């Protein structure tokens, strides 16, 4: 996929959020000539509606108010421009491009454990991620440590085949930690650059799931000290603020190092990305913008802000 295709996919994945957010902000600017309390109140509603979240919304409004005061303007002409500017500051956009955010270094194999509640898109994300590493010329082994769902292995087999990755866990062991152990063995034996381990989103009880994930982590660390090097928590962007609860639950059990937000293409509430980036202090590494293998994108803050706020002539709402 070329660079321009990637940008277009990114933009179209965020089209619903952009269209809804920008249409409402522009309408607000058109009907309110001043940035006064009432305008800010309506802006608050718009941001909350896009799932930007209460804490982050409050912070954005505070900054807008402050700028209006210190810079002495009160016209609403530049409302969308100012909003974009403040969101960019909030996300510390510094213009650096985002390559594959997690690259194998001297540690081989690099071990990535993928966690998240059921149905958020873990397995799909692993397929897409494996494909990205393959595109970068890396050798990838996938561990099918979701032994809860009967069809999980078959689903992963299909993704691995599409991506050109190897699947470990042939023994059909019912014990997730043994499968993870086996995946690391295969990764080492086959000189893989990356091992990605899938996990279940659900067990018979939630407590069991967290205990199981801890155990998987421990076993991997035993086999390869320091592994897993990354723990990616997958969140479904359409579930909104519930996602923040899930982050807390998983960070308590396994040390989450990065987030993946999936299904942004299916929601007008892409503001959740701003909320999690700002509130949680855990970096968003990737976003999912569709069901195809090339629909996972490294999270590039600058591209995200542009895609969210710019109704560019080449794209806009018709995508
Ligand atoms: N539109 C869209 N759909 C997605 C995206 N990512 C995943 N999905 C879909 O979400 C559904 C669930 O994905 P899975 O990868 O099976 O989710 P999971 O977390 O592995 O689910 P469990 O193994 O049951 O816990 C599938 O239908 C995927 O195609 C995305 O970025 N956009
Ligand atoms: Mg799965």
Describe this structure in words.
With 319 residues, the protein is α/β, with parallel strands linked by helices. The protein folds into two domains: 3-96, Up-down Bundle (Four Helix Bundle (Hemerythrin (Met), subunit A)), CATH 1.20.120.140; 110-301, Rossmann fold (3-Layer(aba) Sandwich). It contains twelve helices and eight strands. It has helices spanning 3-13, 15-31, 37-49, 54-71, 79-90, 122-135, 152-163, 176-189, 206-223, 242-253, 272-280, 301-309, and strands at 110-115, 140-145, 166-168, 194-199, 230-236, 258-262, 284-288, 296-298. Strands 3-2-4-1-5-6-7-8 form an eight-stranded mixed sheet, with helices on both faces. Helix 3 (37-49) runs antiparallel to helix 4 (54-71), helix 5 (79-90) packs antiparallel against helix 12 and helix 8 runs parallel beside helix 9 (206-223). The protein is elongated, with a radius of gyration of 21 Å. Mean pLDDT is 86; it is low at 313-319. The structure holds guanosine-5'-triphosphate and magnesium ion. Magnesium ion (MG) binds next to helix 6.
SSE topology:
Elements: H1 3-13, H2 15-31, H3 37-49, H4 54-71, H5 79-90, E1 110-115, H6 122-135, E2 140-145, H7 152-163, E3 166-168, H8 176-189, E4 194-199, H9 206-223, E5 230-236, H10 242-253, E6 258-262, H11 272-280, E7 284-288, E8 296-298, H12 301-309
Parallel strand pairs: 1-4, 1-5, 2-3, 2-4, 5-6, 6-7
Antiparallel strand pairs: 7-8
Guanosine-5'-triphosphate is lined by residues 116, 118-124, 146, 149, 152, 201, 262-263, 265-266, 288-291, 295.
């Amino acid at each position: 996929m070329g660079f321009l295709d990637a940008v277009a996919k990114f933009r179209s994945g965020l089209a619903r959020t952009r269209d809804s957010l920008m249409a409402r902000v522009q309408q607000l600017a058109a009907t309110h000539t001043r940035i006064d309390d009432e305008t800010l109140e309506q802006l608050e509603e718009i941001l909350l509606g896009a799932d930007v979240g209460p804490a982050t919304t409050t912070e954005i409004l505070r900054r807008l108010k402050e700028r209006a005061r210190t810079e002495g303007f009160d016209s609403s002409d530049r409302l969308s421009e100012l909003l974009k500017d403040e969101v960019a500051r909030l996300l510390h956009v510094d213009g650096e491009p985002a390559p594959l955010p997690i690259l194998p270094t001297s540690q081989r194999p690099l071990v990535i454990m993928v966690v998240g509640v059921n149905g958020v898109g873990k397995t799909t994300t692993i397929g897409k991620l494996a494909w990205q590493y393959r595109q970068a010329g890396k050798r990838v082994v996938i561990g099918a440590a979701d032994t809860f769902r009967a069809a999980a292995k078959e689903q992963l087999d299909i993704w691995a085949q599409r991506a050109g990755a190897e699947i470990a866990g042939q023994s059909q062991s019912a014990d997730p930690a043994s499968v993870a152990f086996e995946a690391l063995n295969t990764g080492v034996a086959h000189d893989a650059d990356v091992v990605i381990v899938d996990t279940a989103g659900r067990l018979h009880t939630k407590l069991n799931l967290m205990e199981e994930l801890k155990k998987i982590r421990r076993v991997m660390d035993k086999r390869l000290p320091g592994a897993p090097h990354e723990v990616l928590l997958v969140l479904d962007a359409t579930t909104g603020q519930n996602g923040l609860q899930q982050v807390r639950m998983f960070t308590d059990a396994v040390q989450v190092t990065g987030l993946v937000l999936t299904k942004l293409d299916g929601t007008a509430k892409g503001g959740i990305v701003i909320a999690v980036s700002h509130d949680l202090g855990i970096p968003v590494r990737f976003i999912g913008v569709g069901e195809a293998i090339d629909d996972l994108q490294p999270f590039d803050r600058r591209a995200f802000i542009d895609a969210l706020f710019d109704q560019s002539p080449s794209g806009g709402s018709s995508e």
